[in-house]
Amino acid sequence: MVSARCKMVVKEVLKSMNLHFVVVDLGEVDIMEDLTLEQREKIKAALLISGLELIEDKKAMLIEKIKNVIIQMVHHSDEVLKVNFSTFLSEKLDHDYTYMANLFSEVQGTTIEQFIISNKVERIKELIIYGELNITEIAWKMNYSSVAHLSNQFKKVTGLSPSHFKQLKDKRRSPIEEIGNSNSSTPTKND
Questions:
Q1: CATH assignment of the domain containing 131
Q2: Number of separate domains in the chain
Q3: Residue 59 pLDDT level (bands cut at 50, 70, 90)
Q4: Is position 17 within any domain?
């Protein structure tokens, strides 16, 4: 629940049920009332209609929080981290990074690092398509140590250099929700 549309849908569902909520952020909603089983099912059904789901399992919630923090940092923030991402994630979610990394890999079938890389590549595609920044500016914006590092990682994931990608006007991007899923349509070098 990172996008404004998702937050709006959740707020509307809760308002339509006359529920009072405190926070709607990073996949979490604090509802002031105690929910009945019927209300919970109503919320679940209303969210499903919009393509969202109610997650109640603590491990699944942690996975969603990890994804949301990564998506927020990669796609919606210009903040430059002063610590490495594992430390940032541990502090942000108040969990041991090794525990989160193992849980994420077990449930998602990919590592947190690969999920970050997949999201960064999608963001780089977006920035290339917009054409407002050159590759050096994109590398700096995306916290790469060099253009070569960005180019190597981009090519490893897409099979194309950033400049070749720029030439392909009809190249399709993956929706954020599908990035890092095993059924993702992001092409790889072997496709």
A1: 1.10.10.60
A2: 2
A3: confident
A4: yes
Asked if the structure places residue 79 within a domain, the reply is no
C-alpha dihedral, 77 to 55 to 173 to 49, nearest 10°: -120
Note if the pTM is more than 0.70.
no
Measured between alpha carbons, how far is 67 from 119 in angstroms, rounded to an integer?
A: 10
* Full domain range(s) for residue 165: 113-178
Of the candidates 108, 83, 104, the one whose C-alpha atom is nearest the C-alpha of residue 95 is 104
What does the pLDDT look like over 148-157, one tens digit per residue?
999 999 999 9
What confidence tens digit (pLDDT) does each residue in 107-153 have?
Answer: 899 999 999 999 999 999 999 998 889 999 999 999 899 999 999 99
Q: Does 10 fall in a domain?
A: yes
Amino acid at the residue 12: E
Residue 164 domain flag: yes
pLDDT at 182: 58
Cβ(2)–Cβ(64) below 8 Å: no
